[in-house]
Design brief:
Protein name: Porin
CATH superfamily: Porin
Shape: globular
Strand content: over 45%
Distance between the termini: 18 Å
Pfam family, one: Porin_4
Radius of gyration: 20 Å
Structural class: mainly beta
CATH architecture: Beta Barrel
Keywords: Signal
CATH class: Mainly Beta
Organism: Cognatishimia coralii
Helix content: under 10%
Number of domains: 1
Number of helices: 1
Length: about 290
């Protein structure tokens, strides 16, 4: 699920660098979530704060570090808050950025939209195929509307790469991950013109045999599509996805409505994910 964070607090510092600052940005939501499989409706919320320090040397080298402060609750009996997470440190110069820490894999690009105020999981049916590992070193380089990324896990030989770009109303993202027992290739195409946008994605995850596994992993492929239409402050989104794992199929669909309140969004959706009927309604905020 993609998150857009806006800075709300800045502490400006000067200590031997050309410019430096610390910002705190975040998002939060609250609402109701229903699952037929679980047989209940729960009250849930999520809080996500991002603390980021950044600066620039006199020679033009940018640097920084960030950490997330996250917590969520599903009814009062199920509260989680792991404290600080996702620590990252980066340096950047002339479009090239090196990041180390708990970072996202380079192949995690593209995908389709979910629906609802916190997401029903329609996109997970296909997106889960590219979430195959965890990397701790990453290089990003951008030029114009083109972005290239390479990431690796320094403890083994696993790596991931991606290429993303846009031309006029069209966009494309391609990613590949090479893991010890799991290789994944993905591609996403998008089109946006005026009030209408559409995205289509395909992922292919193919396994090698893991001699230590009790049950052999199965190769899988999947695809998904979403379409959105915006009129004024109202956006309607529909999404569909399916996956085939060694002949066993799973699919999901959903439709959602979001109303922009200016700094907050009222949203809800309903659909079915792997046979489980789901619905939600709530409000999201950005700080």
């Amino acid at each position: 699920m993609k998150k857009v964070l806006f800075a709300s607090t800045a502490l400006v510092l000067t200590a031997g660098v050309a410019a430096a600052e610390v910002t705190i940005s975040g998002s939060a939501n609250m609402g109701l979530y229903y699952s037929e499989a679980a047989g209940n409706t729960i009250v849930k919320n999520e809080i996500d704060f991002d603390v980021k320090g950044s600066g620039e040397t006199d020679g033009g080298i940018s640097f920084g570090a960030s950490v997330d402060l996250d917590a969520d609750s599903n009814n009062s009996a199920h509260v989680t808050g792991g404290g600080a997470s996702d620590p990252e440190v980066f340096i950047s110069y002339e479009g090239l950025t090196l990041t180390v820490g708990n970072i996202g894999e380079a192949n995690d690009v593209g995908g389709i939209a979910d629906v609802g105020f916190d997401g029903l999981g329609v996109d997970d049916i296909v997106d889960v195929l590219r979430e195959t590992g965890s990397d701790d070193v990453r290089f990003d380089y951008s030029f114009g509307d083109i972005a290239v990324a390479v990431s690796a896990d320094s403890s083994n030989d696993e790596y991931a790469i991606s290429l993303s770009g846009s031309v006029d109303a069209f966009s494309v993202s391609v990613g590949y991950a090479d893991r010890t027992f799991d290789n994944t290739a993905t591609v996403t195409l998008g089109y946006s013109a005026g009030a209408f946008s559409v995205n289509a994605t395909y992922a292919d995850s193919f396994y090698d045999t893991d001699p230590t596994a009790a049950v052999a992993n199965a190769s899988a492929d999947g695809w998904g599509i979403d379409a959105s239409y915006t009129t004024g402050d109202l956006t309607v989104t529909a999404a569909y996805a399916e996956r085939d794992t060694a002949g066993t199929k799973a699919d999901a669909y959903g439709i959602g409505v979001a109303y922009d309140l200016g700094g907050a969004t009222l949203a809800g959706g309903f659909g079915e994910v792997s046979g489980d009927q789901r619905a939600d309604l709530g409000i999201s905020f950005k700080f």
